[in-house]
Amino acid sequence: MYNMKSETIASGKPGISADGPGKPKRKGHFRRNKDLFILSLPALIFKLVFNYLPLIGLIVAFKKFRFDKGIFGSEWNGFDNFRFFFVSDNAWRVTRNTVMYNGGFIIITLVCALILALLLNEMSGRAVKVYQSALFLPYFLSWVVVGYIVLAFLEQDRGLLDHVWRLLGQEPVSWYQEAGKWPYILNAVNLWKTVGFSTLVYYAGIIGIDPSYYEAAKIDGANRLQMIRKITLPLLMPLIVVLLIVAIGGMFRADFGLFYFIPNNSSFLYSTTDVIDTYVFRALRTVGDVGMSAAVGLYQSLVGFVLVVAANTIIKKTNSDHALW
Amino acid sequence: MRKKERSIARLLSHAVLVVVAAVMIYPLLLVVSISFSEEAAVVKNGYRFIPEQFSLDGYAAVFKNPGILLNAYSITILVTILGTAAGLLLTAMIAYVMSRKEYRYRKATTLFVVFTMLFNGGLVPFYILIVKYLHLKDTLWVLIIPYLINPFYVMIMKGFLDRMPAEVIESAKIDGASEYRAFFTIVLPLSTPALATVGLFISFIYWNDWWLGLLFIDQDRLVPLQLLLYRTMNTIEFYAVNSQHLSGSVDVTKFPSLTTRMALAVLGAGPMLFIFPFFQRYFVKGLTVGSLKE
Fold first, then answer.
1. Could you give the ipTM of this predicted complex?
2. I need a surface site. Which of A187, A266, B174, B262 has the fewest CB within 10 A?
3. What is the band of B2 on the pLDDT scale with cuts at 50, 70, 90?
């Protein structure tokens, strides 16, 4: 939007104009920015070591990795790691599960969070606080604890839902062995845990809208729904789109805790609960196939990246203001 | 007319939100209630929302042998305090730099940070880096360092700092303050809502973490709280599945019972759930996601 402008404005600011008009010399501008650069340096080094350096390690995907030989010492084996993964049924299964679940999560959470945020906006300050606490509570639980909670509902012969299920005259179900039920369970659990956070982000966005828009609309006789449709939603769009693009970029990355702890890593359920991340984890920690795990990881990262770029390009075509870059 | 419309809207919103709030809280209360139930009743009738008979036995069993739990608590508390302090400071520093409109490398810095949100190497290179090259396996540091900077929290922090009037910093600099001084004595104190919000999030990341423990901790003395919970659950399952194969040498009734299990879950989640309402008032102010573009 205004990235180009900001630099020209900046050079007119006091403290910077000291260098006189025209383009400042290279050395000069480093000295001027040095203090700020040093402030950001620890974080930059951190990102370099923990996010950029590991990218080199991706070459492991093309190697027969051995821990004692390290990344560079291990032998190359071309695309064997990829072949091993893609010829198995696993590739399709974990990819399908990952994408379908994430797609579902994105849509369901977005819709629910927007509705809840709009409802919160109708409330007075104190009521907002109360509801906000309630909505947010599950967000602050770890997946391990949520695993215990789900167990309280689903445990065979004891769980509360199990109990209610039988009261309703349904056939008893071994929940942790019946794969068909898990898409519903995981969607519900995920929504329960994450909707509070998204709601609050959208609510904060709604609060930030200039009230004069609403006042003008009121004078024109607009009703509440009209105001939501014509003011709130359009002004919230940039935020929605940014979060959407980031979420789409993460479509190939599943929330490991959800898929590992909630189905209790039960092998009966793999057909509907195994996702790329749990598969990689098991391949790495249980099977010990480092090369193949890395290959799957690379596949995951690359597709994810392509998805972000594609989503951004499409959005840029429709409305360039909303695009991420 | 207008007033009536408003009150109807409010009433409807209340109705929906009350139901949603109940659904949110109910599962938690269920676990708390089970943890205070009498074991025999739970074994016989299963989990019920209202305990048939109130009992503290679940907790008593946990505290009969408190060594492991206390050790896990101290590891988790230590990791949470150190990690939150260091992480918050680093996050605020880089977010501040990214929010300064006249900073020349601002776009480059933002890209450098945001890119890691969109593309990363995945689990394996990270695992090899930590284990083989940084030699952090089975150390306290491995539970702290990897989470220090989360790009999403940097963006939240930046979103807040973006709205700080430029005059604040300029006037400080006119008074002769250095960049560092301006940041630490003027910008940070004015950022309390964002620091509180992001700080709380970071502390929850540390408190709730089992992932780093699961990957990198084998030594019992370094096991954090959530990993202990997970291991406990696993142990129970192991004995539940294998109880008929294990000869009389193992007394299954001695293992964490149903109520003890839920008591552990409550003890694992409890402390943070008490802390979080105190930070509430900062949330909305502190939670505006900054634009990624500037």
1. 0.81
2. B174
3. low
